């Protein structure tokens, strides 16, 4: 089983270089893998399946083409695209995943998740997260006109940026206690997540054992993680890209 993981692309019309790089990855890299995991915040905002941005049509086409080639595409919600629903998933031939997924590999069982649920020291954010993940809140929000939803989403993003700028790195990073507790509860020694935009390989996450791999956000660089029988490798490439991805190995396990 060959798996590819990415997160935190934050696709937006203001960053056509990221859109293009994602399409190139879907066309050149992803077909080599059995499964592609999209671990949240793939989109800068998703206000409902009826508001799917038209400027992302090249991405939609590339996803459908990849699925037709036989790669299974799995989508996990992030804090920016938690309203990506079944209608969009069906259209793009993507399988929606729960918030936390336990998988098996040659390296043993492991978890994949977006990662924001591990930032338990940020109590204000966790309260907000609980609110917007509530099905009743989502139903009420999706009942609003599209233009109103887009305006609300824009205001929420601006508020989030302002509040994050005033918080310490410790608060906005994952909690070591939450990580250890999750590993113990799920009986795994490996977690893969995104969200924090701090790509790294962390050791001893549960006593004297346990690894945690953090995927990078796509900004000045793009990031992806490969997993196969040979091990686990974290790569980065400079944005914008040329005709082909020129990747550099950053971490391996």
Automatic annotation (TrEMBL):
Cofactor(s) this protein requires: Mn(2+)
Topology in the lipid bilayer: Peripheral membrane protein
Chain positions recorded as substrate binding sites: 79-80, 122, 160, 164, 167, 195
Principal location: membrane
EC number(s) stated in the UniProt entry for this protein: 3.6.1.54
Localization per Swiss-Prot or TrEMBL: Cell inner membrane
This protein's record includes keyword Nucleotidyltransferase: no
Broad EC category: hydrolase
Reaction(s) catalysed by this chain's protein: UDP-2-N,3-O-bis[(3R)-3-hydroxytetradecanoyl]-alpha-D-glucosamine + H2O = 2-N,3-O-bis[(3R)-3-hydroxytetradecanoyl]-alpha-D-glucosaminyl 1-phosphate + UMP + 2 H(+)
The protein's name: UDP-2,3-diacylglucosamine hydrolase
Native species: Marinobacterium iners DSM 11526
Lineage, opening ranks: Bacteria, Pseudomonadati, Pseudomonadota, Gammaproteobacteria, Oceanospirillales
């Amino acid at each position: 089983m060959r798996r590819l993981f990415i997160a935190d692309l934050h696709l937006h019309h203001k960053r056509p270089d990221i859109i293009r790089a994602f399409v190139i990855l879907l066309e050149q890299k992803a077909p080599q893998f059995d499964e592609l995991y999209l671990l949240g915040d793939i989109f800068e905002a998703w206000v409902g399946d009826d508001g799917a941005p038209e400027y992302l049509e090249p991405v939609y086409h590339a996803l459908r083409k990849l699925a037709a080639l036989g790669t299974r595409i799995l989508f996990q919600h992030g804090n920016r695209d938690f309203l990506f629903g079944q209608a969009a998933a069906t259209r793009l031939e993507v399988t929606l995943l729960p918030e936390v997924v336990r998988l098996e590999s040659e390296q043993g069982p492991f978890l994949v998740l977006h990662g924001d649920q591990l930032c338990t020291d940020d109590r204000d954010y966790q309260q907000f997260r609980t609110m917007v993940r509530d099905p009743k809140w989502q139903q009420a929000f999706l009942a609003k006109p599209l233009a109103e939803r887009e305006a609300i989403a824009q205001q929420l993003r601006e508020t989030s940026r302002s509040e994050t700028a005033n918080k310490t790195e410790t608060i906005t990073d994952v909690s070591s206690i939450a990580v250890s507790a999750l590993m113990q509860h799920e009986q795994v020694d490996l977690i893969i997540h995104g969200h924090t935009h701090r790509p790294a390989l962390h050791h001893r996450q549960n006593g004297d054992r346990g690894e945690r791999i953090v995927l990078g956000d796509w900004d000045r660089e793009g990031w992806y993680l490969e997993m196969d029988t040979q091990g686990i490798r974290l790569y980065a490439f400079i944005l914008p890209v040329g005709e082909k991805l020129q990747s550099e190995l950053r971490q391996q396990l």
